[in-house]
Amino acid sequence: MGRGVDGTALFTRGKLMPNTEFGHIMIRDREAEPRASDRIRKQEDLSWKKWARRLNEYPATMEALFWPGLIIVGGGVSKKADKFIPRLETRARIVPARMLNIAGIAGAALAPEAVPRTATPG
Hints:
Layout: E1 10-12, E2 15-17, E3 26-27, E4 30-31, H1 32-36, H2 38-43, H3 48-55, H4 57-66, E5 70-73, H5 81-84, E6 93-96, H6 103-114
Parallel strand pairs: 5-6
Antiparallel strand pairs: 1-2, 3-4
């Protein structure tokens, strides 16, 4: 989730689905990321409990749309997973990314290898 829920990847049967960006999905007539990001938690000085209640709307919405089996939380907030993940109510298992905050960086570094080239530069 990085700064919030702005970095989202969807995998099905072990394959990355391209162009999945769900941080912009609408929840309560607002984009999810500005409503439930860690940045907003800090800005509004929300307790972990209050923030988890707000954040919980995001995985609940994802579950209503996709029925995921696993939700992985990355970004800086993943270092504090013990403060909010137990407060989330989901069918899917939620875990912090193994690489915590650097998961997105590692994924971005590997992405060019995973994306087929459609045009040659030049």
